[in-house]
Design a protein that fits this description.
With 540 residues, this protein is of the alpha/beta class. It is built from 22 helices and 14 strands. The chain has a 6-stranded mixed β-sheet, with helices on both faces. A 4-stranded parallel β-sheet has the order 3-2-4-5, sandwiched between helices. The chain has a 4-stranded parallel β-sheet with strand order 7-6-8-9, with helices on both faces. The protein is globular. The protein binds FE-MO-S cluster. FE-MO-S cluster (CFM) binds next to helix 3 and helix 12. The site of FE-MO-S cluster (CFM) has 16 residues, from helix 3 and helix 12.
């Protein structure tokens, strides 16, 4: 494929649109150019999708219930809404969990919903919600219940928070809280992340007192155990002598959330979905954070080294080095065999709000070039780095989501590192409380597109013919009909893990199979023969 983005491609992407739409989309399509201090061209992000365009995005309910809270096993989650919302958020994301004992509560295999009907839309659904809460308590005796609002709940005005309060008064042993995460609340699922962070922070964090053993206690933020990623990361932490106190929220429990203020460091994997929590915990408890990435063998080693160096613990540092040496030797064996077959091939990644960046590491290890990438719903800081935060425009849609004012906890605020210690760490390139974004790490002249849509994807595939396209289930079969393999980077195509060392090996093997299979050249898309589908409508 042509490596440089020619101006013709840039025009082709938007020339089918009415001029106003083309102008708007033009601000979300950028040719990368990394200047001094990682400065990159601005990209428009986190704005409404233009009506009529087929976006890849999801909704606020999905971001709150599905993404942030979904992977927690013992907060009983009730979807207040029509059955479809609950059904389609029922484990389709492939987040896994492993309860400590077979008797430990695990509500994840269930889809609990109030199943709102027309009658409830007309006369209100609060009574039904109360009944659902009572039924859930009688059946499961949970410690906590989360209620999640869907679009119609907001439209008819059910007060889910009043219901939560009333039910908590009746059942004081159960922590009951509700999320106003109606699907339409923001421009994408990103709004749901923020709503989830706020509620978990005010209703759960700091309410427990469990403290796990170990000298190096860390919370892992923004890791959701898709395809078993968290299990691999847990294996690595343990081998390096690091205690994983709480994960938000892969393989997590309510008690871990409630007592996460007892850890001494927060590391952030998915910046987009959970940066709010990291910032709020720093302000309230004095726990600093930095960005990590466990996608890619090199990135995993780098992240583990940073974690043990933060604590300055010699014993853990030695353990970590020995572990990294042994693991990377295993990874190298596989990579050496595969890389000659993948070297020089091209990839495009259009996923969510962090994976389009993280997975470039794995392609880099395979010697493949990421020629185009973009997020569905990330904000400018995820593209350009947090340094642009002061210049990010706050529009009406963002203002809709509450920004909590957080101050130091009078009893429990205790800065884990002094200002001087933070400075020393930053001198060693720790970038405390920072994220440099995706674009500064991408090559010059590569293409970055925010909120890619179906039409633009079509143009990219026809014009550039990448060796592999990474996106989700909505894109998968269209791309494959073009004769281009698609790797699902949301659900991992029934596979995984891809995190850590073992995950990297899984990924290398699968990409090798995909980009070297002859089967794709045999695919004849239906539209090659018949570009327009014809049908007849018979009335009566
Ligand atoms: Fe974070 Fe995620 Fe992602 Fe995300 Fe998601 Fe996901 Fe994703 Mo799908 S939290 S932003 S809202 S890394 S569900 S585990 S794969 S779009 S790139």
């Amino acid at each position: 494929m042509e490596q440089t983005v020619d101006s013709k491609l840039m025009t082709d992407l938007t020339n089918k649109y009415p001029s106003k739409v083309a102008r708007k989309r033009g601000k979300q399509v950028v040719v990368n150019n990394v200047g001094d201090q990682g400065l990159v061209p601005p990209i428009q992000a986190n704005v409404r999708t233009i009506p009529g365009i087929i976006t890849m995005r999801g909704c606020s309910y999905a971001g709150c219930k599905g993404v942030v809270l979904g992977p927690t096993r013992d907060i009983l989650q009730i979807t207040h809404g029509p059955i479809g919302c609950g059904f389609y958020s029922w484990l389709t994301r492939r987040n896994q969990t492993r309860p400590p004992t077979p008797e430990s509560p695990n509500y994840m295999p269930y889809a609990m919903s109030t199943d709102l009907q027309e009658e409830n839309i007309i006369f209100g659904g609060e009574k039904k919600l109360k009944k659902a809460v009572e039924e859930a308590i009688t059946l499961f005796h949970p410690r906590a219940i989360g209620i999640f609002s869907t679009c119609p709940v907001g439209l008819i005005g059910d007060d889910v928070h009043a219901v939560a309060r009333e039910m908590e008064e009746k059942y004081p042993d159960v922590n009951i809280f509700a999320f106003s995460c109606e699907g339409y609340k923001g421009v994408s699922q990103s709004a749901g992340h923020h709503i989830a962070n706020n509620k978990v922070f005010t209703e759960v964090v700091g309410t427990g007192d469990m403290k796990k053993d170990g000298k190096l206690r860390v919370n892992l933020l923004g890791e959701y155990n898709i395809g078993g990623d968290a299990f691999e990361i847990e294996r690595i932490f343990e081998a390096c002598g690091v205690t994983l106190h709480a994960t938000f929220s892969g393989n997590s429990s309510y008690e871990e959330f409630a007592s996460c203020h007892n850890a001494d460091l927060n590391v952030v994997m998915c910046h987009r979905s959970i940066n709010y929590m990291a910032e709020m915990m720093d302000k309230k408890y004095g726990i600093p954070w930095f960005k990590v990435n466990f996608i890619g063998a090199n990135a995993t080693s780098k992240s583990m080294r940073k974690i043990v160096q933060y604590f300055g613990d010699q014993e853990a540092a030695a353990k970590t080095e020995a572990f990294i040496e042994a693991e990377t030797a295993e990874v190298k064996k596989v990579l050496d065999a595969i890389r000659p077959r993948t070297e020089g091939k091209t990839a495009m990644l259009f996923v969510g709000g962090s994976r389009a960046h993280h997975y470039q590491e794995l392609f880099h290890e395979l010697g493949m070039k990421t020629v185009a990438a973009g997020y569905e719903f990330a904000h400018r800081d995820d593209y350009e780095g947090r340094k642009v935060l002061p210049t990010v425009k706050v529009d009406a849609d963002s203002r809709n989501i509450e920004e909590l004012t957080v101050s130091p906890d009078p009893a429990r605020y205790s800065p884990r590192k002094s200002a001087e210690e933070i400075m020393t760490l930053n001198d060693k390139d720790f970038r405390m409380g920072d994220y440099e974004g995706m674009m500064p790490e991408m090559e010059q002249g590569t293409l970055v597109i925010d909120d890619l849509n179906h039409h633009e994807m079509d143009v990219l595939l026809r014009r550039c013919k990448p060796d592999v396209f990474c996106a989700g289930i909505k894109e998968k079969y269209v791309v494959q009909k073009y004769g281009i393999p698609l790797k699902q980077l949301h659900s991992y195509d029934y596979s995984g893990p891809y995190a850590g060392y073992r995950g990297a090996v899984n990924f290398y093997r699968e990409i090798d199979r995909m980009v070297n299979s002859k089967v794709w050249s045999l695919v004849a898309p239906p539209w090659r023969e018949e570009p327009q589908l014809r049908g007849a409508y018979v009335a009566g």
